[in-house]
Amino acid sequence: MRAVIVHETALSVVERPVPEPGRGQVLLKVLRAGICGSDLHIRLDADSSADIAAEVGYDHFMRQEQSVVLGHEFVGEIVSYGPGCRARWGTGTHVVALPLLRVDGQVHMVGLSEHAPGGYAEYLLADEDALLRVPKGLDPDLAALTEPLAVAHHAVRMGEVRRGDPAVVIGCGPIGLAVILMLKAAGVRHVVASDFSAARRELAVLCGADVVVDPAVGSPWDLGHAGMITSASAYYGAGLEALHALRSVPGVPWRRVMRGATRLGAGPRGPVVFECVGLPGVIESIVSNAPFLSTIVVVGVCMSPDTFRPTMASNKELQLRFSFCYDPADFDETLRMIARGTVDARRLITRVVGLSEVEAAFEELGAAKAAKILIDPSLHRRGAQA
Fold it and tell me: What angle do CA 225, 226, 227 make, to 5 degrees?
């Protein structure tokens, strides 16, 4: 079979044997695979990610000197089952899968480990327990977006965004655009998107952003929402004003009323901010400029050491949360949302390429000239499009 490998930062198309499914594994014919922003980074600096992975207990993340088939976003067609499988679905069934594969009793990250080759190939192995059946009639182009949209779905859930909350998305690359799609799918009425790239701002509008900002000329923090607190005096004063109002009514148990209002979500509340850039300095910029009481969800993966001022975050009572991937329920919910049309995932797709075009696609994505490029391993002619 044909596959794209990365070795010492170089991408090349090679011939490899079709893998044989082991116990609990399923052989899939790859229909589509997505190129992820993390693939771009790992191609150039796999060792940094491997070092972090080892620190958190995963010793099999790919290293630069290894030859690895990337691709953890994929949809495939069942070809055959290995021993010990339940074989719930027949051959030819379209499925997506959590990108985790058990090999000899250890769990490996598909497309990010030498032990679990990914979707930049004509065939790959998946764990039977990780499979989700693709709803009948769903375009493989859309099903392939389940994994990146699940990342965004998980981040939006982590932010606990209410429909009336303003949401601010900093960075409109593929993950920022996915977050915008998921915010609108969740019914969030006011989404502000910020990016230096005019092309990405246009995509943000297509994905549903209500306001787009070029941070070179404007501020994403001009939210126009009543109740946003932007100074310490206003924050302290809000408490005094509430106390004054409650105490002016005889017999009102102000303590219980105030606590009850807090439990119900009344009172001052900041926006929910999604950091989708992953570069040093962005968290500090958000901490310094976001309104008081903001919830900040860090979705971008910054691989370099970074700093921010904790005392600034403390003074503003900011909540800082870090989102990485998803759980199986997120994955399943995302697939169903795509199938129902709750989220219009097609807006993310720039085009579909063959294996021989992967290197050029990496360069285009690295230059921020595309949103999401998918791979169809059956396209053998350079320049062919789906």
Answer: 115
